Amino acid sequence: MALSPGHPLNGERVLRIPRSSNDVFKIHKEKKIGTRNVQSMYQPGKAANRVKEMKRLQIDILGCSETRWPDSGHCIIDEHHIHFSGDNTTRNINGVAIILNNQTNKAVQGFIPISNRVALNKIKAKPFDLNIIQSYAPTSESDDQEIENFYKQLRTGLEHTKKEEFNIIMGDMNAKIGQGKVENVVGGFGLGVRNERGERLIEFCQEVDITIMNTFFKLPPRRLYTWRSPADNNHRIVRNQIDFIMINRRYRNAVISCKTYPRADTPSDHNLLLARTKLRLKKVVRKKTPRTSCMQKLKQDNVLRWTKERLNEEFKNISENNNHEIEIEDLWNKIKVSITSVTEEELRPDRLVKRQQWMTDSILELMEERRQHRNRDNVKYKELHKKVIRAIKEAKEERWLQEKCVEIEILQKKYDNFNLHKKIKEATGGYQ
Fold first, then answer.
1. Among candidate residues 125, 123, 127, 152, the one with its CA nearest the CA of residue 137
2. Residue 88, beta-bridge partner list
3. Cα–Cα distance between 157 and 148 in angstroms, integer?
4. Beta partners for 83?
5. DSSP assignment letter at 84
6. Whole-number Å distance between alpha carbons of 403 and 165
7. Whole-angstrom distance, CA of residue 246 vs CA of residue 269
8. β-strands 80-85, 61-65: how paired?
9. In the chain, pLDDT over 70 holds for what percent of residues?
C-alpha cells in the first residue's frame, strides 16, 4: 500500500488506506438546470444553437420562454429532446419548451402542455421525483385578467405534482422583485426596484410555499441581471432581474448556486439563468414494443437488391440441408425464421428523424466563432451573426429544400402518393 506524504509528530509516515467504491454514499448527483427567454426559436438554426450552448455549458435541463413554435409535441436535435407547448393559432405567439439531454430524457415520466405560457415535465428521480414547470408570463402591457389567468395555469401545473416532490417553476416572469428581503420567499440579494407585478409574484410564492432562488446568492450585478433594456448603452445602464428559478421551500438547500451567464451565445436580450442542484435521476422502465419491419424501404434499389440476395442465400441453405422426408410444418418454420431474421436486419425502421437535417459543421463553427465575440466586439459579433443567418438560409433553402423538391418530383412521376405526402411534410417543416 502506498505511503501517505503526511507526517505525524514522530516524523514517521503513515499508510494511506484506499477508499472502496462501496464507501461512497451516492444519493445525490449535481445537475445543471437553466432557463432563458430565447425570443423565438422559429427562425432556422436557433434550436440547434440552444443545444450547442447546452453541450458547451454541460446543462442537463434548459427551459425556454417565447419559443413561438406552434402546437405542442416533441422533437430531437443532436441527441437532445425538446418538449414544447405553443400557440394553436397561426399567429405563433408566446410558447414554452423544455430541452433535456439524452441521459435526463431517459428518466422522463411525462410532458403536460398546459398552455402556450406554461408546460410541465415530470422526471423520475431519487429520493423524490422532479417536476419542471417552464413559464412565460404576460408583459407589463397586459391587463390584470391575463395575469390572473397565467397564475391559474401555474396552479394547474402544480396540481399535477405532490408537495413532497422536488418542484421547480422557472422562466420569464416579467416581474421585478427588486431589493428587499421577504421571509422564506425573497433573499437579500435581489436587483432593482420592486414593481406591482413583483408584488403579485411574491403573493403567489407565499401561497404555494416556493422560494425565488436567484435572490439568495450574493453576487455582482452582472451575475444578477437577466434582461437588458433596448435603452441600455455605453452611457446609460438599464438592466433588470425578471427571469427567476423558484423551488419549493423545503428543497432550497439542494441549490448550490444560481446565477446568470451573460456570455452564453444566443441572440436575445435575456441572459441565461443557471442553477446547480444536487439530484440523482432514476431511469423510467418502459415497455418494449415488438420490432417491426419497414416495407417502404424495398422501394430503395440497394435495399431491395441486398434483401433479395439474403433471402435467396437463406432459401438455398434450407434446400441443401434438408431431405425430402421433412415435415411440411418444420420446413415452413425454417422458412419463416429465415424471412423474419432477414427483414429485421435489412428492413429495420429508422429511428426518430432529427429535425434540422440541413445543419452543417461549418455553420456550427461559425456559431462558435460568433460566441467568442459576444459582449466583447459588437461590430464583429453582428457581422458573424449575419454570416450565420446567410449560411443557414443557403443550407436550408438552396441545397436541402432543392434536394427535397427533386425527390418530390420523382415520387410524383412514380405516382407514389404515400411517400410523396411524407416528403412534403418533411419539407414544409411540421413540428410534430
1. 152
2. none
3. 14
4. 74, 98
5. E
6. 49
7. 21
8. unpaired
9. 84
